[in-house]
Write a structure and sequence with these properties.
The protein is 37% helix and 19% strand. The protein has 532 residues and is α/β, with parallel strands linked by helices. The strands form six sheets. It has a six-stranded mixed β-sheet with strand order 10-15-14-13-11-12, with helices on both faces. Strands 18-23-22-21-19-20 form a six-stranded mixed β-sheet.
Length: 532
C-alpha cells in the first residue's frame, strides 16, 4: 500500500516559469539551502544573470532544446526523476541504471495562453504556440507523485514552501497534497480554456459531449446569497469578452456583494435588448421598472414610475453613457449600483457625492460577443444551456385575432416581450408607451402573476395621485402560453388592448375566442421565455 512520507527533504528543484514574479528571490532562498536548481531557457538565463548557480536541463537530458523549444523537458531523465517512488526498490534501481537524478521540487507555471487570448492582435498561430505541452506534463507528473515531490504552480505559494523547509527541514505531507490538488486544478483550467477557445474558433457547439468549466478566482466575497454561505467570483478567459459585470471598472464605491453582482448582471443584460436609450431598475434579479425612450432622462422617469417603492435600494442599468442630469435624478433615491457602458466627467462628479453608490462602467454592450452558456448546479451534476438570446422578426409573429395591432400596440408588445425574457417565470409584463406599468414575477400560477402585476400598477398609480386606469390601452406579454382563458381575461379586465404570447396551448382556440370577444389584438410568437 502506498504511504506518504511525513517530511520530504528537498535536494534538487526544477524551475521553469513563464510568470517570473518573485522567482529570483525564491531561487536565491533555495540556493542558500544548498538546493541544486535545474532550469530551462529564459528562466535559466534569468537566474544565471542574478548570480544563482543553475544547471540547464539540456545538461541532464544530454539533448539540446529543439523545435523552437517545443521539446526540451519531455525526456526520461526529467520525468523519471519526478515520477520515481523513493520507496520502490525497482524505481530506485532504474534511476541508478539510467543515471537519473531525483527531482524533489517542481516549480512551473504555464505558457501565457490566457494573456495571448486577450490580445486583439493575436493570431491563431500565436495561440497555438502558447499551448504548453511539457509544462502540464511535468506538473501532472509531480502532482501524481506528491508522496515524494512538491509541485508549485503559483508564486503565491513560495513563502509556504520556504516556511515548510525552515520549520520541518522538508516538505510536509499536508503541503504536498494541497499543492498537488491545486496543480491538477491549474492544468484542468488551462486545458478547459484551450478547449473553449478551439470550440469557439471553429463555431462548434458550446455544449459538447464532455463539458469543462474553468475560472480563476477574481474576488473572495464577504459571503454568498446569505451571510452563512461562502462565495468566490471567478473570471473566465475569453477571446471576445462579453461586456458586462466582468469587464466593468468600479469607478467608486465598495466591492460588490454576491447579490449585487447577480442583480447587476441581470440588469445590464436586460437593457442590452434595446436599440434606443433604455434604463432598467432591478431588485432580486427581477425588473421592477424598465423603459425605452428617445433620451435617458425620459426613460429614467418612466422606469422609476413603474414601481418607485421597489426601486429603493435597486440596481440601475443603462445602455447609453451616463450623463450628469440622469446621475442627479438617480441620486434622488437610494441606489446600490449603477452600471453603464460609460459616463461623462460631469456624471462622475455628481455621483462622487454619494460614495456608497457603486458606479460600474463596462466599456461597451454585450451584444457583440458570442452567446454564453448558463450553468445551474445540481446534486452530483449540472445543467448547461445557451443563454436565451432568441430574437423575433416581424415575420416570425402571427396575429391570431380578428383585430390587427396598430403601430403603438406593436411597439409596446415587442417592448414588453423583451422585458418578459428577463422576469422570473411565471412572468406577466404590462407596458404602455414602451415603459413597464406592471410586472408579475415568479408565481406558481400565471393568473396570479397577472393579478399581482395589475395590483402593483394600481398601487403605484394611487401613490402617485394618478386617476383613471393605469393599464388602459396597454400591452401585456406572457413568457409562456396562457393555459386557460382566465389569465387573458384578467388582463383584458385590467384594460389591455394587445397581447403577445408564445401560443401552443391545447386551449389556444378558447384563448383566441376570449380575445376576439373583448376586441383585443393578440400575437403568437412561437417562442417562449421561461426563466427559472
Amino acid at each position: 500500500m502506498m504511504t506518504s512520507t511525513p517530511h520530504v527533504p528537498v535536494k534538487t528543484a526544477l524551475i521553469s516559469v513563464s510568470d517570473k514574479t518573485g522567482i529570483i528571490d525564491f531561487a536565491k532562498a533555495l540556493a542558500d539551502k544548498n538546493i541544486r536548481i535545474l532550469s530551462t531557457g529564459g528562466t535559466a538565463q534569468l537566474l544565471a544573470e542574478a548570480g544563482i548557480a543553475v544547471t540547464q536541463v539540456a545538461e541532464i537530458t544530454g539533448m539540446a532544446e529543439m523545435m523552437d523549444g517545443r521539446v526540451k523537458t519531455l525526456h526520461p531523465a526529467i520525468h523519471g526523476g519526478i515520477l520515481a517512488r523513493r520507496d520502490n526498490d525497482q524505481h530506485m534501481a532504474d534511476m541508478t541504471a539510467h543515471d537519473i537524478t531525483a527531482i524533489d521540487l517542481v516549480v512551473i507555471n504555464l505558457y501565457p495562453f490566457a494573456d495571448t487570448l486577450k490580445r486583439a492582435d493575436a493570431s491563431r498561430d500565436d495561440l497555438v504556440e502558447n499551448i504548453d505541452i511539457g509544462g502540464p506534463a511535468m506538473i501532472r507528473a509531480a502532482a501524481k507523485n506528491h508522496d515524494f515531490v512538491t509541485i508549485c504552480t503559483d508564486a503565491g505559494d513560495y513563502d509556504r514552501i520556504l516556511d515548510d523547509m525552515d520549520t520541518h527541514a522538508g516538505m510536509t505531507v499536508d503541503t504536498r497534497r494541497a499543492l498537488a490538488a491545486k496543480a491538477f486544478a491549474h492544468t484542468a483550467a488551462y486545458d478547459s480554456m484551450i478547449s473553449t477557445w478551439m470550440t469557439q474558433d471553429q463555431s462548434l457547439s458550446p455544449l459538447p459531449q464532455q463539458f469543462s468549466l474553468a475560472g480563476t478566482a477574481d474576488m473572495v466575497m464577504r459571503y454568498g446569497e446569505n451571510p452563512h454561505q461562502d462565495a468566490v467570483l471567478y473570471r473566465m478567459a475569453q477571446r471576445t469578452p462579453r461586456h458586462g459585470v466582468m469587464t466593468a471598472e468600479l469607478i467608486q464605491g465598495k466591492a460588490l456583494s454576491y447579490n449585487n453582482i447577480n442583480d447587476t448582471d441581470a440588469a445590464f443584460e436586460l437593457v442590452a435588448e434595446y436599440d434606443r436609450p433604455a434604463i432598467a431598475i432591478i431588485k432580486h434579479a427581477n425588473p421592477c421598472g424598465v423603459a425605452m425612450a428617445d433620451d435617458l432622462m425620459t426613460a429614467w422617469d418612466a422606469a422609476l414610475a413603474s414601481d418607485p417603492v421597489s426601486a429603493f435600494g435597486g440596481i440601475i442599468a443603462l445602455n447609453r453613457p451616463l450623463t450628469a442630469d440622469v446621475a442627479k435624478a438617480i441620486t434622488s433615491i437610494f441606489t446600490e449600483v449603477i452600471i453603464a457602458p460609460d459616463a461623462d466627467d460631469a456624471a462622475k462628479a455628481v455621483l462622487s457625492g454619494k460614495p456608497s453608490l457603486r458606479l460600474m462602467l463596462t466599456g461597451g454592450m454585450p451584444t457583440g460577443a458570442p452567446n454564453h452558456v448558463m450553468i445551474k448546479t445540481l446534486a452530483g451534476g449540472f445543467l448547461a444551456q445557451n443563454a436565451d438570446a432568441g430574437q423575433l422578426a416581424m415575420a416570425d409573429m402571427r396575429v391570431v385575432t380578428k383585430r390587427q395591432p396598430d403601430a403603438r400596440e406593436w411597439a409596446d408588445m415587442i417592448f414588453a416581450w423583451k422585458v418578459a425574457k428577463h422576469v422570473k417565470s411565471n412572468a406577466i409584463v404590462y407596458a404602455r408607451d414602451e415603459a413597464t406599468k406592471g410586472i408579475g414575477a415568479g408565481q406558481m400560477s400565471r393568473l396570479d402573476s397577472a393579478r399581482i402585476a395589475v395590483a402593483k400598477a394600481e398601487d403605484m398609480a394611487k401613490a402617485a395621485g394618478i386617476s383613471g386606469n393605469p393599464l388602459a390601452q396597454s400591452a401585456v406579454a406572457s413568457d409562456a402560453f396562457f393555459p386557460f382563458a382566465d389569465g387573458l381575461i384578467a388582463a383584458a379586465d385590467a384594460g389591455v388592448s394587445a397581447v403577445i404570447q408564445p401560443g401552443g396551448s391545447i386551449r389556444d382556440d378558447a384563448v383566441i375566442a376570449a380575445a376576439d370577444a373583448r376586441n383585443l389584438a393578440m400575437v403568437f410568437t412561437g417562442m417562449r421565455h421561461f426563466r427559472h
